[in-house]
Design a protein that fits this description.
Number of domains: 1
CATH class: Mainly Beta
CATH architecture: Sandwich
Bound molecules: copper (II) ion
CATH topology: Immunoglobulin-like
Shape: globular
Helix content: 10-25%
Largest sheet: 10 strands, mixed
Structural class: mainly beta
Number of helices: 1
Order of helices and strands: HEEEEEEEEEE
Number of strands: 10
Strand content: over 45%
């Protein structure tokens, strides 16, 4: 019977199709060089949802900073303030830009000195328990 030969192939195709839409993707990750004498700095990237379902970003971690949180800067009446964000939901096809003056990763408590040009491993964490690895380059200025 041909069916016995084709069944495993069909199962393999079904398995590929199930994960075909992809998931979250990160582009252009970078971290601002900490100012002299400061340990705190910010990280930026673009997060894209290439899947066909919502994804929920719940946090991030780093191989260099012990304390990484999601922050947003908002300017009200000419005064800009940062506040922490618990989670961000991206609809299918949506992009979120983490950039100076807006969303950013707040990086605190570095475990070692950080210098311009360093490549830092970042991990983004999602509500479904999955995570995504990215590499961010430390830069003095926005790319
Ligand atoms: Cu902040």
């Amino acid at each position: 019977m041909n069916w016995l030969k084709t069944a495993p192939l069909l199962l393999a195709i079904a398995a590929i199709a199930a994960c075909a839409p992809g998931g979250p993707a990160v582009d252009e990750a970078w971290i601002r060089t900490p100012l002299p004498g400061k340990s705190m700095t910010a990280g930026y990237f673009t997060l894209r949802n290439d899947s066909d379902t919502d994804i929920v970003l719940t946090g991030a971690s780093s191989d260099r900073w012990a304390d990484v949180s999601l922050h947003e800067t908002r300017t009200t009446d000419g005064v800009s303030r940062m506040h922490a964000i618990d989670s961000l939901t991206l609809r299918p096809g949506e992009q979120l830009h983490f950039q100076p003056g807006g969303l950013h990763l707040m990086l605190m408590r570095p475990g070692a000195d950080v210098a311009s040009g360093d490549a830092i491993g970042l991990t983004l964490h999602f509500a479904d328990g999955s995570s995504l690895q990215a590499t961010a380059v430390v830069r003095d200025l926005a790319p």
